[in-house]
Design brief:
The chain is an alpha+beta fold. It contains 5 helices and 8 strands, in the order βαββαβαβαββαβ. It has a single domain (about 1-175), classed as 2-Layer Sandwich (Alpha-Beta Plaits). Helix 1 (about 15-30) crosses helix 2.
Amino acid sequence: MTLYLIEGELENLQAEQIQQALDAIATAATQAQAELIEAQVGEDLQRLFVVIDATDTAIAQQSFAAGGLTVSLVKAVRLVGQDLDTVRARKGKANYLVEWNLPAGLTMDAYLQRKAEKSPLYAQVPDVQFERTYVCEDLSKCLCFYDSPDESTVKHAREVVGAPIDSLTPIRNVH
């Protein structure tokens, strides 16, 4: 099975409508022998980030389509920083999402080596807890999830590890 990141646009839906869509996605995934691993929504209820474990892209997309939401991105991703059981247990802990558009020419091995070298530096910012990263297999971008008291602490943590921020979004777990 492969993890797929699907980003969706919510088009002014209310929290209850988003939850209903996610329930439909989870049901469709289960019926297709896939799994909705997590769903995070921006605090402004405009963007949705879903991770589905499926055998192929079509099943992930069909599962998401069951929610009736608009897709803006579908990418195969690699989970870094946690295993799936830990994500299932801690998915509600993250409250900030950092998107980083990775530089051209970066290899997965180089990214993972850099991540291993830099991650211990998070100890210098004890107020923020790095949770996990999903790296697009095509190395176009990564999404890093944090548990932090505020945006400025996340920004400071990213400075400490020398990682840029292309977008910083307060999020909430909705599944």
